[in-house]
Amino acid sequence: MVSSPLTSVSKLAPFKIVFMGTPQLAARILEFLLGAPSDLSRVVAVVTRPDQPRGRGMRVEPSEVGALAAARGIPVLKPDRIKSVEFLTALTSLAADLLVIAGYGRILPNDVLGVPRVMPINVHTSLLPKFRGASPVEAAILAGETDTGVTIMRVTQRMDAGPILLQRRISLANDETQGSLKTKLADLGGAALIEALTLLRRGELAETEQDENLATYTSPVAKEHAVVDWQADARQIERKVRAYNPWPVARTKLNENELLVWRARAVDADQQIASAAVPAGTLVRLKPSAIVKCGEGLLELCEVQAPGRRRIGASDFMRGRRIAEGTRLGE
Description:
Blueprint: E1 3-5, E2 15-21, H1 24-34, E3 41-47, E4 52-54, E5 59-61, H2 64-71, E6 76-77, H3 85-93, E7 98-102, H4 110-113, E8 119-124, E9 132-133, H5 136-142, E10 147-154, E11 164-171, H6 178-202, E12 206-208, E13 217-218, H7 234-243, E14 250-254, E15 257-267, H8 271-274, E16 283-285, E17 290-293, E18 298-305, E19 312-313, H9 314-320
Parallel strand pairs: 2-3, 2-7, 3-6, 7-8, 9-13
Antiparallel strand pairs: 1-12, 4-5, 8-10, 10-11, 14-15, 15-18, 16-17, 17-18, 18-19
Helix pairs in contact: 1-2, 1-6, 5-7
């Protein structure tokens, strides 16, 4: 990969930035941007998804980014259609130097990408070109990666394929969940963004083209992806549980009722249990902990939940429901 320096964009005034994002991870990155030195950048507006029904009461509420912007008195745009003339006119009127994008959730057309004076920048939560697309955090855990990171990149119309401006790396803990990793990557991404803006201001930022031969892709996560296949290896199932915590939560069936699995861990095989002639998904032990036979290996269920009920230790749940050894999950 060849790096090329960007033309100096240093100027007396701070960068005028329009921030585009939606979820909590993006809101945390916005906090870093709002805390940047006043001579470096100024957020003139935020673009986020329209308000949606949320929570148990399904009340219409703003996104996490929209709520933060409103609390800070920053103008908020919530377009239903980002290709509309009305939105493009409003965006152009802001005369932004940079678009900064983090978890916005939509592919941006060239008309939008061409609005900023300098460039559109994205904060992506993987070490590109690995794990392009909508679910890089989940994908890193599912793949059993030992490290991942964030990429600050110039946005092009091809998804996550633009030149790399800066990357920072982080190690994954053995018990890393989607939630814990997104928290770490939000902080890492916010700090990396400020670093990239500082270098850009000095004219010291370089672009590095991505190696297309190394590109891998992820897709949006849906609830059906979280259904446990008990024929899989126990360590693969453990990674699925961690990758989908806190959403959409790994799930299986117990006596025709759905059971959410919040925490689980692959355990060293007890040869007598592991060799038992029972199908994968069978609860082969309940005391002192709930153990499930998998296609390969054994999985300890640590914390589970029946929909509408509170999360509870798996052993307590099984005892309370009078579940017997030999019960098969997933049928």
